[in-house]
Automatic annotation (TrEMBL):
Name of the protein this chain belongs to: Glycosyltransferase
UniProtKB keywords: Glycosyltransferase, Transferase
Residue stretches making up the Glycosyltransferase N-terminal domain: 28-266
Known EC number: 2.4.1.-
PANTHER family: GLYCOSYLTRANSFERASE
Lineage: Eukaryota, Viridiplantae, Streptophyta, Embryophyta, Tracheophyta
InterPro entries (UniProt xref): Glyco_transf_N, UDP_glucos_trans, UDP_glycos_trans_CS
Classification via Pfam families: Glyco_transf_N (PF26168), UDPGT (PF00201)
One MF annotation (Gene Ontology) recorded for this entry: UDP-glucosyltransferase activity
Originating organism: Dioscorea cayennensis subsp. rotundata (White Guinea yam)
Length: 513
């Protein structure tokens, strides 16, 4: 499976002096610094290191992100997992970014995103130097697709590079087919619906809902670099499982001409409450308080409402969400981000507006980061209002939860189609027009009535609702089986790692002068 050229050169430079310990496989993981990319990569590290056998996993990050990962790393150390966190300096100044802009969730404007990606590409040389100097030479790099520069590092070190996606194969194939069939040349407006070509299902979207990754003039260079690096990759690692989307996995693999490794759902590696709680950032709510509140609710009666780590919702839209939740008379946990808690919003929730007091018997509001996996895994949770980030959807799938879909941008509209039209475990809230990330307005996309209607349909949808819930339950059984010994993802992880057990890491080839 490993590229012959790489293997040949590896064995040539392997002079046979490496000790047995140094010859164990060493996986280097390079996540993009955004929660929806880092969390699944950290879980992948856990899945690989969890197999033991002396393997080493190195996670590459930056100082600010290393601080955020401290609780998680302490947990890994206590569990004896061979996962090492390496923090490389992040060149904010050189890339024209304010100091500390090391994660997409702290970038203040869309314009600075270009600088952020420039800064990530400047990590190329420090990463190569680090890997050359470290005594345990890497077996391969598993790199976020958004880091095409890691291809240069892999080439220079003569090791394979795998592209990593926390996106389903359905969305990857739709995006690929829309581009390869030049669909945008055949439509007259970005709001004109078209059928995604070459699929087994009839999926309709518009250009503005599915523009492709890194769309627009600002991103031409990065888009091309990503395309070339993905094409040259040794394989693709995806946070999905084969039984969820067999046709899409097979056909994405054919379309890419590259092995697709389905190794998920990654989040199922978190077996106990402590592991589920320490993910991403530290939780903004006392976990015991949250648990006690959930314990006091009847099974499958609470709806969890969260729009991930990157969306920003205006106070006018948040108030409509709140009023819709209240009108639905369902119990709920509602996550409002710190950046959304302006004075107007704080007052509306608090004494002046009285919202929190009015809903106190049914609603719990989390101000800041929520322990999402811990909440979703609690038996009291019966549904999830989500922005359709793929990690959130995989977490809902794993926990057997039907969802209300409220996509905002990026891959989220295609993910919605998958959940609503292919898996049929979702109720769309009815959003057709995307939000522009970083340029959010106070426009109200969904009124309180829309929220209330979707909530009723999700939690009290008669026969149709019961069937939806049953489908969600069944798919979670399949998800859990995939991750158990003998399951498809479990066995894929074994095979993925075996590629390297017979071809131990070599000594570094000389650096280019
Ligand atoms: N998440 C969390 N608490 C929060 C918000 C998000 O634990 O308050 C986690 C969530 O469980 C998921 C990730 O952050 O694993 C968000 O990824 P997703 O793909 O759903 O959305 P994104 O944030 O990338 O848009």
């Amino acid at each position: 499976m490993i590229n012959n050229e790489v293997r040949k050169s590896s064995s040539v430079v392997n002079n046979g002096h490496a000790s047995t310990q140094l010859m164990k496989p060493h996986f280097v993981l390079v996540p993009l610094m955004a929660q929806g990319h880092m969390i699944p990569m950290v879980e992948l590290a856990q899945l690989i290191a969890g197999r033991g056998g002396g393997v080493l996993v190195t996670l590459i990050t930056t100082p600010l992100n290393a601080t955020r990962l401290k609780t998680t790393m302490d947990r890994f150390n206590r569990s004896g997992l061979a996962i090492r966190l390496v923090s490389l300096p992040f060149p904010c100044k050189e890339a024209g970014l304010p100091e500390g802009c090391e994660n997409i969730d702290v970038i203040a404007s869309a314009a600075l995103a270009v600088n952020f990606f420039k800064a990530t590409s400047l990590m190329r040389q420090p990463l190569e130097t680090y890997l050359r100097e470290h005594k345990h030479y890497p077996s391969c790099i598993i790199s976020d697709s958004c880091h095409p520069w890691t291809w240069d590092v892999a080439r220079s070190l003569q090791i394979p590079r795998f592209t990593f996606f926390s996106i389903c194969c359905f969305t990857l194939l739709c995006t690929h087919n829309i581009a390869s069939h030049n669909v945008f040349d055949t439509i007259t407006s970005e709001r004109e619906p078209f059928l995604v070509p070459g699929l087994q299902d009839r999926i309709e979207v518009t250009q503005e809902q599915a523009p492709g990754f890194f769309y627009g003039d600002l991103w031409v260079k990065l888009r091309e670099e990503i395309r070339a690096a993905d094409k040259a990759a040794e394989g693709v690692v995806v946070n999905t499982f084969r039984e969820l989307e067999p046709w899409y996995v097979e056909n994405y693999q054919k379309a890419m001409g590259n092995k697709v490794w389905t190794l998920g759902p990654f989040s199922l590696c978190n077996k106990d409450v402590n592991h589920m709680t320490a993910r991403g950032n530290d939780a903004a709510i006392d976990e015991n308080k949250c648990m006690r509140w959930l314990d006091s609710m009847k099974p499958r009666t609470v709806v969890y409402v969260s729009f991930g780590s990157l969306t920003f919702t205006s106070p006018s839209q948040l108030m409509e969400v709140g009023l819709g939740l209240e009108a639905s008379q369902q119990a709920f946990i509602w996550v409002i981000k710190e950046v959304e808690l302006c004075r107007e919003m704080t007052e509306w929730l608090g004494e002046a507006g009285g919202f929190e007091e009015r809903v106190k018997t049914k609603g719990l509001i989390i101000r800041g980061w929520a322990p999402q996996m811990m909440i979703l895994s609690h038996p009291a949770i019966g549904g999830f209002v989500t922005h359709c980030g793929w990690n959130s959807l995989m977490e809902a799938i794993s926990m057997g939860l039907p969802v209300i879909t409220w996509p905002h941008f990026a891959d989220q509209f295609l993910n919605e189609r998958f959940i609503v039209e292919v898996l049929r475990t979702g109720v769309p809230v009815g959003v057709d027009v995307p939000v522009t990330w970083g340029l959010e307005t106070s426009h109200v996309y969904v009124t309180r009535d829309g929220v209330e209607k979707a909530m009723r349909s999700l939690m009290d949808g008669g026969e149709e609702g019961a069937q939806r819930r049953e489908r969600a339950r069944q798919v979670s059984v399949t998800a859990k089986k995939a991750m158990e010994q003998g399951g498809s993802s479990y066995e894929n992880i074994t095979m993925f790692m075996q590629q390297f057990s017979h071809h131990p890491p070599a000594a570094p080839p000389p650096a280019a002068v």
